Amino acid sequence: MILRDIAKKILEFNKIAVVAHASPDGDAVGSTLGLTLGLRSIGKDVDVLSKEPGPEVLSYLPLYAEYGELNTLKEDRTLLLCLDCGNKDRLSMERDGFSEIFKINLDHHVSNEMYGDLNYVDSKSASTAEIVYELLEELGVPVTEAMAECLYTGIVMDTGSFRFPSTTSKTLRITSKLLETGVNFSKIQRMLFATSPFKQVKLLGRALMTLESHFEGRVSMMNLEANDFNVLSISDRDTGDIVNYGLEPKEAEVSILFKEAEGFFRVSVRTKEYLDASALCAVFGGGGHVRAAGCNIEAEDLMHAKIRMLDEIERMMTS
């Protein structure tokens, strides 16, 4: 399925809902709001669905207040656009009406399960925001500064401000087009990468105090306990880029952050060159990108969760 055909199909609908994955990140929120703005500009009636608000750091985005306000499909919706989510079970919405509605799945994760009635999955795109930009072009929507602010946010978050190897020449061409709208990219960079709430800085300190290395420094591990989040009154999903700090040692190839939840651990994984983070997380039912992925691990305690992860890493390193 080519993007032009996706665009033609979307134009057949007027009552639309847009949803992305649970635990929304910059690409999920930016893509959702950018596409919503674009569709509304051509007269479409669009709802934003999410069970939770976007990260507070993204509150500068237009339509941010709508993210997390509605999580159930209205009876009059006839099209559901699913963004940046490889697994339908991770879509951040209630399931009433989900089976019946026509679904279009737009994503860039190689692990996508192709659950839509129509699917467009481009794993060569560094972000879903890139795909949304191309879709808006196919729809004939002029990209405004407000749309560009959303899409630029999605791109810089998923590329680590163009540091990750997923960044391509196409990524930079699209970014150039977004900058031509007059979007204040320096403000966005400052908000995303040089500004953090005090409690998030404190959380980083707690995580770094647990930093340990394995396999002669090739694997870094950190953890956060449930009490860390309770004491600081911060969400266990609001850990920002803490996991990336584990890759700073020269010898580190893999960084893993464990976050204690009820009966399991949320796990974030980042890698440099040799290990596929998505393949590693897929062993535990998760997924994502080659260099950034996540999963949940059920274990009786942190030690057993670490052992399971280390055993799998060792198997992958020696196979």
Description:
This protein is of the alpha/beta class. The protein has two domains: 191 residues, inorganic pyrophosphatase (n-terminal core); 121 residues, Roll (Diaminopimelate Epimerase, Chain A, domain 1). The protein is built from ten helices and eleven strands. A six-stranded mixed sheet has the order 6-7-8-9-11-10, with helices on both faces. It is globular and about 55 Å long.
Name the descriptors.
alpha/beta; Diaminopimelate Epimerase, Chain A, domain 1; 6-stranded mixed β-sheet; 5-stranded parallel β-sheet; 10 helices; 35% helix; globular; Phosphoesterase RecJ domain-containing protein; DDH_dom; nucleic acid binding; Oligoribo/pAp-PDE_c-di-AMP_PDE
Question: What percent of residues adopt helix (DSSP H or I)?
Answer: 25-40%
Q: Please summarize the sheet with the most strands.
A: 6 strands, mixed
Principal-axes geometry comes out as: globular
Average pLDDT works out at 94
Distance between the termini: 36 Å
Number of helices: 10
CATH architecture tag of the largest domain: Alpha-Beta Complex
The radius of gyration computed from the alpha-carbon positions, rounded to a whole number of angstroms, is 19 Å
Strand order of the largest sheet: 6-7-8-9-11-10
SS class: alpha/beta
The count of domains is: 2
Q: What is the succession of H and E elements?
A: HEHEEEEHHHHHEEHEEHEEH
Name the CATH class of the largest domain.
Alpha Beta
Number of strands: 11
Low-confidence stretches: none
The CATH topology assignment of the largest domain is: inorganic pyrophosphatase (n-terminal core)
Beta-strand level of the residues, as a percent range? Answer: 15-25%
Look at the structure and name the CATH superfamily of the largest domain.
inorganic pyrophosphatase (n-terminal core)
